[in-house]
Amino acid sequence: MDHDERRRSITAAAWRLIAARGIDAANMRDIATEAGYTNGALSHYFAGKDEILRTSYEHISEATDRRVAEALGDATGLDALRILCREVMPINEEKLLEARIAASLWPRAMYDEQMAATNRRTMDNWREQMAVFLEQAREEGTVGDIDVSIVVEQLLNMMMGMQILGVLTPGETSAARQLEMLEQFVAAL
């Protein structure tokens, strides 16, 4: 196993701990145990817990962006917009796991400049993609005369809210309910 693989393995262990027991459970000793390493061995791959958490946060964004890119194919307009949203929304176990981890790390991202920068890049990327898809939809005649920047912010806020509520109140914010909200929102455009 090479250096990068070991870093990914340690990051995955941190993900599992955060998702199962919260960010406080992600101490170096427990991360090492979960990853199958000694506590001291982690220092060969990460400078400390903060670096592991930053890497975990980056990996969540990268995983979502990879899924979006793979799922998009040749989709444009509202079809592409729906795909992007569904890849962010916690509508299956994988995405719910990522939402749990992201929600656990958001408080740190408010004060950690590197995590804040990761968050800004991700949000800016999603905003840009949504704007392109909405402009395509306007050109295709599938939306009315909308203020694209406002619609993008509404949609982004709705998806972030779904991540929080999908984790905290999964019964009320079920996958079916999330998909229904998305479809009603898009239909109103």
TrEMBL record:
It holds the Pfam family TetR_C_6. Keywords: DNA-binding, Repressor, Transcription, Transcription regulation. The keyword Cell membrane does not apply. Residues 4-64 form the HTH tetR-type domain. GO terms for molecular function: DNA-binding transcription factor activity; transcription cis-regulatory region binding. Residues 27-46 bind DNA. This is TetR/AcrR family transcriptional regulator. It comes from Rhodococcus opacus. The lineage of its organism: Bacteria, Bacillati, Actinomycetota, Actinomycetes, Mycobacteriales.
